[in-house]
Specification:
The chain is mainly beta. The protein has two helices and ten strands; from the N terminus they run βββββββααβββ. The chain has one domain: outer membrane lipoprotein receptor (LolB), chain A (Clam), CATH 2.50.20.10. Helix content is 14%, strand content 43%. The strands form two sheets. Strands 2-1-10-9-8 form a five-stranded antiparallel sheet, with no helix packed on it. A five-stranded antiparallel sheet has the order 3-4-5-6-7, covered by helices on one side. It starts with a strand and ends with a strand. It is found in: Cell outer membrane. Monomer. This is Outer-membrane lipoprotein LolB. It is a lipid-anchor.
């Protein structure tokens, strides 16, 4: 997973990831390319947690949780659909699903600014 935010200065984020669950309740583990855990995200109705080592932060929603972990508001509900090849509509986002069958997804946030480019290479288990 890589994310580029065209802010001043440009922000970039990349990590290996494991996504489980659904938009309503799930987990996202982010690890560095060398295998160290960067963060673990957990969400369920009424609960959204970001675990970074022994530090645990609570958030009001999964969307706020994802933004805190990655630096951008990535629409988690749509992300599950996009990874399944469904063109979930999200205001401001333009997914490119042409390569989902080959394990590649790209989505661009055009509004609100700054623009963001999300690229994911994945395997289904």
């Amino acid at each position: 997973m890589s994310l580029r935010i065209d802010s001043q200065p440009v922000q970039t984020f990349s990590a290996l990831f494991e996504l489980r669950g659904s938009p309503e309740a799930g987990e996202l583990s982010l690890t560095s390319p060398i295998g160290s855990t960067l963060a673990q995200l957990h969400w369920a109705p009424g609960e959204a947690l970001l675990k970074n080592g022994s530090d645990i932060r609570r958030f009001d929603s999964v969307d706020a949780l994802i933004e805190a972990a990655t630096g951008a508001a990535i629409p988690v509900g749509a992300l599950f659909g996009w990874l399944a090849g469904r063109n979930e509509r999200v205001p401001g986002w333009r997914p490119d699903l042409a390569q989902v069958a080959n394990g590649r997804l790209q989505a661009t946030r055009e509004t609100p600014g700054p623009t963001a480019d999300l690229r994911i290479v994945f395997e289904r288990s």
